[in-house]
Structure formats: structure tokens, C-alpha cells
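Have a close read of this protein, sequence plus C-alpha cells, and explain what the C-alpha cells say about the fold. Thanks in advance:
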Amino acid sequence: MSDELIIRGSLEESSLPELLRSVTRSRETGVLSCEIYEYQKAIYILDGQIIFASSNNSDDRLGESLLRNDRVPLRPLMIASKMVKPGKRLGSILVNMNVLTPEELVEGVRNQVRDIIHSLFRVTKGQYELALRDVNTHEMILLNMSTEDIIFDGVKSINSWTRISKGIGTLQHKMVPSAEASKLILNLSLEPEEQHLFSLCEKGQFTIEEICTMSYMSNFETCKHLWAFMMVGVLDSAEPQEMIDQPTIVSPRIISADKEYEFHDLVENYNSLFSHIYDYAFERVEDQAEALASKAMDQVKVTAPDLLRNLKLDTYGRLDSDSLMRNIPVIDEHGKMEIVAGTLEEILYALLYEVGSYFGPDHQQKLLAEIQSLRKK
């Protein structure tokens, strides 16, 4: 490719899954660069295949990735990091120290690259630049994962119902296999419930709403997976030729499909706030952060024992939305959402209270200001 073509745009207008779908389907070669706040990340594509990624975010560096994925102990990593200098890379130092084998280093770099790519799928704001040009692969450790799997897993990491619903269309749209479905499906590593979902769509007879009633997954997960199948080019969404007013067979669920989507978005929004507080505590007291979170949850369980039955914040400070949904009491639908929202708000302020008790009021006020800022985004 002798000439370079550059395409620029906003990630708010063109999401990463859509961009990658377009570039990989047309089998282009080039670099897709994304500018997110002060960071820059890039995905390298060769003949329509995703082969590498890079980032200038310190959290995406090899050492941090190896530590996060439990590939190296902390002390040898800190020793090796001090030995890094021009011409002497961290990975080579760790191999020379016998902390990693050459094979483990290669796999560690591939995990780092996959993490960088997946982090971009969750981004909704920023600028992108797609430069269609030759890619020099000389110093790259290339991914050993199909591009379809990379995109499929990336879309599955997205938990915004707004983005998912926009991607799949209305519940009356039908899911039909694409012209290349039989070939592309072979490039995907599917779990049994994902294989079952594709088999429902393979018939090309059912609407999204009907598929939701037959899928082994929740409505939310079903729709997210349908979008993932669409983004890898396995499924297409077909508009119904005519709308027929007839009864729909609905599986017994605690809340309706529409309310379930709202519910998942609500929990996801609060989970991002819970995680922010948990990370704040973990950075300062590490393992004691879990005890702090448990104490906050115990306070709220006194007022909402049924809703929070057998629930706790995980090691990332998040609640499992599916488990929470199963605990929702049988009451009026609007009342359900109000009760859940009120309980999540109680958890938020219980966490802030515990931070204040543990670290002092200055920390509590600082964290409260950060939470308020996050809510405005």
C-alpha cells in the first residue's frame, strides 16, 4: 500500500465495534488510533485481521498487565522495573531473572494487547483516526486469537443498554444469518449457551423478543450477544415487513423485558460509582477495603434484607445484577425500580460513610465531590 488514506471522526458518532467491523470486512491494512482524554491507544490491522495494539496509559504497560493477571510476583517486578533502560526491556529482564519463561513472556504480551483492545470497546467519548497504510510488524508479538473472537469478546464487555439497544434495533426486528455466517462462525470460540443462541437465529424466523424468551441467558445478556454476533458479521438485523398485533409467548420473569434493560443500566451506573469508592479504599488499605465494603453492605441489609439476600460487593466493588434481580420482591413494576434505586443509593452513602469513619471527613468530602462529578458525565 503506497498511499496513505486518513479518516478521522468521533467515537460518539462511530463506535469502535462498528469501525472494526467495517475495516475487517473490507480487509483493510492500517492503524486505528483513539485519543481518549490524555491517553492514546492504537489497534494495528493487517489484511482485515487485528494483530496488535499499543497504549501510552501507564496502567496498560506490560508490567502492570503481568501483575494484574497474576503472571509475576510484585517484588521481582519492582526490581526488574528499576533495571529498564534504552535497549533493555522489561520482558527480557524478567526472562533473564528466570521470573518468566520466553513462552510465558509471549503469552503475557498477548494478554496485555487483548486488554488494551477490550478497554477501547467500553469507550464512548473521544476522537479516532484511521490511517490506511502499511504496518511494520517487525517488533510485534502478534495475537494468536481470531479477529472475530476479539471483537465478540470486546462487545460482550460492554454493559450499556443504550449502546446495545441502538445496535440491535427494535424488539420486532428479526435476527437472520449473514451470507458469510457459515464461514465466520467457525472463527468463534462459543460457550454452549452462545451456540444455542446462534442456533435460534440460524433459522431466521424469530424476532429479538421471541429469541429472548427462548434463550438460556437473561434478556440483557441475550441482546448483548446478538449485537456481538452482528458486529462480527455472523448475524444481520432484518426489519419486519409488517407489524402483526398478536399475543407473544413470554417466559416467566420477575420483571418485563423493557424493565430488565432499564434495571441493568441502573445497576451498571451504580456499580461504576461503587467501584470508584472501592478502588479509592484499596489504594490506601488494600485487603481491608473488602472489610470496609462488607460493613457498608451489612448496614443496608438491615433495611433491605430480602433484596440483598446472599449478595456482597465483589473484589472490584460491584454487585451482580442477575443475583440482585432474582431477589426483587413481587410488587408493582414501578415500585420495584424505585426500591432498587433507593437501595443502591443507600449502599453508595453507606460506602461513603465508612470511608469517612476510616480515613476521616476530608477523604469523605473529596470522594463525595468525585462521585458527584462522575454522576454528571
The CA atoms of residues 65 and 111 lie 8 Å apart. Residues 242-254 have pLDDT under 50 and may be disordered.
